[in-house]
Amino acid sequence: MVQSRSAIREERPTHRSTSAAGFGQPPPALPVSPIDGTASTHLIRLVRDTARRAGVGDDQLATIPGTDDTILSGELNRIPLSSLVRLWELLARIRPEPGAGLAVVDAAPLGTLTTWDYLVTNGPTLADALRTAQPYHRLVTAAAEGFDLSGDGDLTVGFRTTAGDPAVAAVINEYVLAYYLRRAREATGRHVIPARVAFSRAAPGNHDVLLDAFGTDRIEFDAPADTITFTAADATAALPRADPMLADLLRSHADLVLATARPIPGPLEAFRIALAAALAAGDPSLATVAHRLAVSPRTLQRQLAEHGTSWRTEFDLVRYEQAKTLLAEGHLTTSAIAARLGFTDDRALRKAFRRWSGTSPSAIRT
């Protein structure tokens, strides 16, 4: 029974909401964290390697920040969400029909996403394991990526990606729903068949691959949300390998990972770091900064334009910031600061400073 219809939109529940009555209530506010806009190295590696096997070239992958093996070797490194979305875009482009998300799940046996995988499969029941894991969703992806749970008997898992392109979102959501089905089967030790699967995407021309993967024809398209629903029998059955001590250790490790994770700079932040370093070294040319970033000057200019900025704007900004710092330190004369920042003389610095801030360098020094 493959359907294409509208249904009541499900809003995000609070962290441990177990019934539909919990919908409509905003989740508790979480502290803003530097890792909120990032994804784990394990998920990045999984999607990158699947894209490579699908035919995405290494030259394309090399342009995505944070996807090289050196950075991905550290569990505590966190990669900008934009890099993950870019990987999904490449995968969606090379394999547009249903099945691209399933290919990622096929390459992800239990343990691929390390701590997160074991959190969602270890508990008295599948429902208990998922509810306990829910607050730790940032272990694997960005805080803005929605992971929802609802249901008193049957258990519905929902996901809301921030990807704006519908074709990319379709691949991501296909992966997520298939991921939770695979983990449910691994946790219960049996071939779980979902009660219902719903996709917000339009129905594809052929979706036999989805019927085979989910094991059911109870699949809806054009739904208000992307969800997979497990029957009460599957959601509340005792898990055969539940280990309370292991669950405590997993949560402690998850807390430690979240507290000590290190965000890897995105492309714009990396550019600004390279530009500041080139300016400090006395050679802040476009060619020099592009060389530091291992791209051509033209590519660098294009990347800046994609982020809504330009070389001239960024160069002006970094000179202003360094000028303020040097003036506040008070060790150098205005002429020396002008020379260090590439101005022809201190008069040029004063003119630029008034344009930047509406005041003079001497006022900042004072």
Instruction: Give me the number of helical elements.
Output: 18
Cα gyration radius (Å)? 25 Å
Order of helices and strands: EEHHHEHHHHEEHEHEEHHEHHHHHHH
Distance N to C terminus: 76 Å
Silhouette: elongated
Secondary structure tally: strands:
9
Oligomeric organization of the protein chains: single chain
Estimate what percentage of residues fall within beta strands: 5-15%
Category by helix and strand content: alpha/beta
Helix content: 40-55%
Average pLDDT confidence is: 86
Q: How are the strands of the largest sheet arranged? A: 1-7-6-8-5-4
Low confidence ranges: 1-31
List the helices and strands and how they pair.
Elements: E1 3-4, E2 38-40, H1 41-54, H2 58-61, H3 69-72, E3 77-80, H4 81-94, H5 100-106, H6 115-119, H7 126-133, E4 146-150, E5 155-160, H8 166-188, E6 196-198, H9 208-214, E7 219-221, E8 226-230, H10 232-236, H11 244-260, E9 262-263, H12 267-280, H13 286-292, H14 297-306, H15 311-329, H16 334-340, H17 346-357, H18 361-365
Parallel strand pairs: 1-7, 3-9, 6-7
Antiparallel strand pairs: 2-3, 4-5, 5-8, 6-8
Helix pairs in contact: 1-4, 4-8, 5-8, 12-15, 16-17
